[in-house]
Amino acid sequence: MGSALPKTTTTLFNLADDILSITAQKDADITAADLTALQNTLDRDALSELANPTTFFKGGHFFLDLSLSSVAADFGGAGTAAYTDFINLFDPNGNGRRYSDPVLTTDPSHKHHLHDHSTNRNQDLTFHFDRYHPYHNFPIGAIQHGGVDVLYGSLGVHCLDPAWRL
Amino acid sequence: MNSDWLFNLGRALLLVAVLSLAAPGQTRQDAQEQNLRRKVEDEVARLFEKLRAEQGLPSLTRIKHRQSLEELVCTSAMLDKAVWRENSPGALIYRTDNPAASSPELERIARFKDPLESKNQPSFTRYAVAVWPSARPESEQPLYWVGIQIYMSAWWEFIDNNFTDNRSYKDDWKKLVTPQCRGVD
To answer: Among partner residues A93, A95, A145, which is closest to B84 by beta-carbon distance?
Structure first.
């Protein structure tokens, strides 16, 4: 892990850990070999994000992108049950998914909400953290999410996801 | 010079006349095709609901017309290729020569259950169907592209599309639509 951007590094690897952890716990057909391959892909993706200049991380949210074809290859093909379950967990054809707090992460201090979308014309998934979950404790959660993640998260400069800026 | 001008004017008038005669015919054809598509969509929806009922799964409310799905299925029909990278358990597009008959794809989506269902997640309560004839049939037999997608409730979709960070992504599906399918009905 690079130390020039410690918060960014932590956030990217927490994103990767959450994706891996959710897959391990909720993908009924996953195998240990699939998880190892996915972990390698996620680590590569996080390191590749970190190779960007600091200016790349300006703005509220930043993202860990994951190519669906890499995941399909990791799981033995797009026709496997493990891959179908994975698609169902992250919903690239719809509005993506929001995961609840506590996220199933390996970092006990992290209490943020994993959120994903499809990107690159439905070829990739892109993940980020939200500090508040709009569906929790409605309408309070929606107001907090709108104020902090959407408005405040999009203002200001340099560099961090609102989950880690505060 | 004068005769050329008159000749060109005559050609232009003839073209206008031909187009004005053809347009209502084209519109009638479009309306007939739309009626046929609606009929097939109704048949697919009936079958989808029947399959869910047979599985003892909760019924979903049908959205009669979902513009995004219409345009995505139209695009799939034009390209003869599903626009999504792959189908998912709650959203699929497939090609068939008999949309009113049960198929593995239809059976799969009819069995859809949200793996994350909980009190903290909006439930998936609605679905939509869109059908388009294939633009590249391989034989005399007509082929259709069928799209079925399952959605959260109208209330939660409104909140999600307007008051969350999904607002910036809600129109991303438009990037997948070919120009000839934009705004189709």
So the answer is: A93
CB contact under 8 A, A91 and B121: no
pLDDT attached to residue A158: 39
* Predicted pLDDT at B45: 98
Distance of CA B69 to the CA centre of its chain: 4
pLDDT of residue A131: 81
Asked if B164's CB is within 8 angstroms of A150's CB, the reply is yes
Residues in B touching A95 (Cβ below 8 Å): 152, 160, 166, 169-170
Domain locations along chain A: 6-102+113-165
Q: Is the pLDDT score of A50 beyond 90?
A: no
Please check the confidence at residue B54 and state whether its pLDDT lies above 50: yes
Do A12 and A6 meet the contact criterion of CB atoms below 8 Å apart? Answer: no
The shortest C-alpha distance from B90 to chain A (Å) reads 7
Q: Is residue B18 part of a domain?
A: no
- Predicted confidence at residue B9, as pLDDT, reads 64
Domain span including residue B49: 30-181
Q: What is the DSSP string of B131-146?
A: EEE-SS-SSSS--EEE
Answer whether residue B4 is part of any domain.
no
Q: What is the CATH number of the domain that holds B78?
A: 3.40.33
**What ipTM did this prediction achieve?**
0.85
| Radius of gyration over every alpha carbon of chain A, rounded to an integer in angstroms | 16
Does any domain span residue B22?
Answer: no
Shortest distance, CA B118 to any CA of chain A (angstroms): 10
Q: Is the pLDDT of residue A103 over 60?
A: no
Q: A68, B85: Cβ pair inside 8 Å?
A: yes
**What phi and psi, each to the nearest 5 degrees, are found at residue B11?**
-65, -40
pTM of the model: 0.85
Under DSSP, is residue B125 helix (H, G, I), strand (E, B) or coil? strand
